[in-house]
Amino acid sequence: MSRMRVRRFEYFADHMEPVLFRDVILGRTEFFRATAEAVEHAGLSVWAAATARISYLLNMLSHPYGDMRECGRKWVRAFIDLAQALGASYISGHYDLSLIHISEPTRPY
Question: 99 vs 68, which has greater pLDDT?
Fold first, then answer.
């Protein structure tokens, strides 16, 4: 990648799912360090992190049940921790919001 003059890239959470790999991220374990070292060795840096698929496939933030939305909020917080740990300044992704939610402002979720 760095041969193409790409220096910064967006990291996708599919590689290191932030809840399943929470201990890996917080503990900066061997896998986490290997990932960070591979990025550095390639002459790259993470400028942003993207949620990838899981956040919208499970309707995490717009789920009709409050307990599931809380799980979604916990997932997003863990995702932000992952992004920061990799040096990202920004996050992006799919947050399962749709026109129906925008068009129904009184909807409780």
Answer: 68
